[in-house]
Amino acid sequence: MVSYSAVERASSKDPHDWGRAMAKAMTRLLDAARLDGQHFEHEFLFGEDLHMRIEENGDGAVVSVTWHPESQGFAP
User: Fold this and answer.
1) In which domain, by residue range, is 9 found?
2) How far apart are CA 73 and CA 26, in angstroms?
């Protein structure tokens, strides 16, 4: 089972900063898929199930996002 994961740090505990970190992590997921030979664009994430975890980290937070594309019919 292929999966892609990305982690980004949010600079504060404000959810707006988590959103920016989540957006960066989602971009990194697709970058990892491209390195794996796939040609996914951001539109491929529409309707996809992503797993996200937010952990406290000092004054900020760490946002982790994981995607299993084959669970949605994509096969790398």
Assistant:
1) 4-72
2) 19
Whether this model's pTM surpasses 0.85? no
Alpha carbon of 46 to those of 8, 41, 49, 59: distances in Å?
Answer: 21, 10, 9, 32
Where do the DSSP E strands lie in 1-76?
Answer: 4-10, 50-57, 60-67
Residues 6+ positions from 48 with CB-CB distance below 8 Å? 67, 69, 72
pLDDT per residue over 31-73, tens digit each? 998 888 877 788 888 888 999 999 999 999 999 999 998 755 5
Number of domains in the chain: 1
- CA-based nearest residue to 22, from 50, 41, 2: 50
